[in-house]
Predict the 3D structure of the following.
Amino acid sequence: QVQLVESGGGLVQPGGSLRLSCAASRFTLDAYAIAWFRQAPGKEREGVSCISSSGRTTLYADSVKGRFTISKDNAKNTVYLQMNSLKPEDTAVYYCARNIRTTMAPPANFKWGQGTQVTVSS
């Protein structure tokens, strides 16, 4: 089955950086857009960033624009989210998902993985 595995989360101080990874299996990234989502306790899942199948188009939520950078390496079948200047409000579980469109709307009928926890705190 299609599988995306998130990793790279951790505990960082405000202003710190993390790089999240989304490793794909049983499909290749050159045919799908990949989006990052996050969900804080008691909050709805929200779109963070998205990269097109070609990698030439990227989207960012206003809350992370200028601080986060999404990229992909098709040879490694991995999508990355470089997170700089982290703020406490970035604290959430981060998930990645694939879609046929380059969008930060959650895909239909997608089996979400476990995600990776990002905690930003002094």
Remarks:
- The chain has no helices and ten strands.
- The chain has a mean pLDDT of 95.
- The beta strands are 3-7, 10-12, 18-25, 33-39, 46-51, 58-60, 68-73, 78-83, 92-99, 116-120.
